[in-house]
Amino acid sequence: MNVQHVYEEGLCMQCGTCEGVCPTGAVALTWDLRAGYLLSVDAQTCTDCGHCHEACPGPGLDFSPGAWWRERNEGALTEDFLGPWRQLWFGWASDETVRHEGASGGVATALMQAALATGAADAVVAVRMSATSPLEAEAVICRSPEEVAACRGSKYNVVATNTVLRRILEEPGRYALVGLPCHIQGLRLAQRRSRRLRERVVLTLGIFCGLTCEPRATAVAARQAGLDREELSFVSYRGPGWPGGMRLETRRGAARGRHYPDYFDGFMAALTPPRCRICPDALAELADISVGDAWLDRFTGSDGVSDVIVRTPAGERLLAGAAEYLSLQPAGPQEMVASQRETHVVKRDVRRGRLWLRSLARRPLPDYPGLDLSASAGDRLRGVAEAARERLFRFLADRRYPD
Ligand SMILES: Cc1cc2nc3c(=O)[nH]c(=O)nc-3n(C[C@H](O)[C@H](O)[C@H](O)COP(=O)(O)OP(=O)(O)OC[C@H]3O[C@@H](n4cnc5c(N)ncnc54)[C@H](O)[C@@H]3O)c2cc1C
């Protein structure tokens, strides 16, 4: 069995794991302005080995207390939404430039630079915007602190990071991988059956994710700013400072900037891959360390503060080795959840409402054992309201900003 049916059922998370683990190169994800990625499986070269299907997080994942992926993490505390954790911190990069230029204090960049400097990893998989196709985010393998720094900042844009697993399988070394929850889920499923991937990807840094956007969302933002998307030469979404903003530049020298979250309007919120709306994993529960914005009043006006959730013994070792790279303040579970109030609503209440709507339409649902799927009347209302808003803004985007 291969992943074609997952894609056709609308359950593909666009993480890229299927292409990354396919031994014959039969599975391919092709970048697309509207969809993000289009999946194809070449019937001639597919041997039906099932590797792609086993590693696909699209059909769902076990989040119950006894789930296989929690087995090597004894002693971790756990609760709904927060996931397993051993330490909780608020933090930022000690280096002022890394902090200022990062999305929420540069913790991800600082941790990955520390991983390289201490030898915890030989290389880091991170994401940057393509130099030749500025609406396209791409995964890169970084081997120097400068290359890691060049990937800083959140990209509100889909990226099939895990296609890079093919290179990792071919090129020996010890890798750290930075990814959204879907990337980390796909990686863990792939590692479950591949010893080589377990030995090579030794660290994972999860980036919190409420929703990501289709590439077209950035094209719409460019049109709103009066720029031709074909002319774009540079796109960034966050930084400098906190929370920073979007910056768009063209080959003709025009530049536009807009603060975050002002630019994250109805269009950006609507033009997101539908599968994201039914994913419950906001905080990358399967990562060694997870980071996100610490949206708390007490950090307003600072140069960026991240939530830092240290989940596994490997994460604890990485953090201990990164002491001089980070400034940390102790955090508690309630304050950490409070810092993600909006994302909590999206990934719990709205998600249950969207799943309920999907079930009414008799569309296949992902299976998430261990998570409460029963939608209250309020959840259903939220799901209907969000679906209606999404349809409206998709319609308006087609009318006002055709490709
Ligand atoms: C799509 C998306 C949705 C998010 N949703 C939330 C949210 O709901 N709540 C919240 O608190 N935080 C969210 N974040 C995380 C937040 O925006 C910051 O990325 C995070 O706090 C890390 O900041 P930093 O300064 O430590 O990272 P930096 O030092 O700036 O480094 C950012 C790292 O993230 C990686 N990265 C950037 N974009 C992507 C991407 N699309 N896919 C994979 N890796 C990527 C880069 O490679 C880089 O290594 C989201 C991020 C993204 C990309």
User: How many H/I helical runs?
Assistant: 15
Tally of DSSP β-strands: 15
Strand order of the largest sheet: 7-6-8-9-13-14-5-15
First CA to last CA: what distance?
35 Å
Average pLDDT confidence is 97
Bound molecules: flavin-adenine dinucleotide
Query: What structural category do the secondary elements indicate?
Result: alpha+beta
Task: Walk me through the structure.
The chain is α+β, with helices and mostly antiparallel strands and 403 residues long. It has two domains: 4-214 and 269-346, no CATH class; 347-400. 33% of the residues lie in helices and 20% in strands. The chain has helices at residues 4-8, 17-21, 51-54, 96-101, 107-117, 145-149, 165-170, 181-193, 195-200, 215-224, 266-270, 313-321, 333-338, 341-360, 377-400; strands spanning 27-32, 36-41, 77-79, 83-85, 87-93, 123-129, 137-142, 175-179, 201-207, 232-236, 245-250, 255-259, 289-293, 306-310, 326-330. The strands form four sheets. Strands 7-6-8-9-13-14-5-15 form an eight-stranded mixed β-sheet. β3 (77-79) and β4 form a beta hairpin. α14 (341-360) crosses α15 (377-400). The longest helix has 24 residues, at 377-400. The radius of gyration is 20 Å and the shape is globular. The mean pLDDT is 97.
Layout of strands and helices, then pairs:
Layout: H1 4-8, H2 17-21, E1 27-32, E2 36-41, H3 51-54, E3 77-79, E4 83-85, E5 87-93, H4 96-101, H5 107-117, E6 123-129, E7 137-142, H6 145-149, H7 165-170, E8 175-179, H8 181-193, H9 195-200, E9 201-207, H10 215-224, E10 232-236, E11 245-250, E12 255-259, H11 266-270, E13 289-293, E14 306-310, H12 313-321, E15 326-330, H13 333-338, H14 341-360, H15 377-400
Parallel strand pairs: 6-8, 8-9, 9-13
Antiparallel strand pairs: 1-2, 3-4, 5-14, 5-15, 6-7, 10-11, 11-12, 13-14
Helix pairs in contact: 14-15
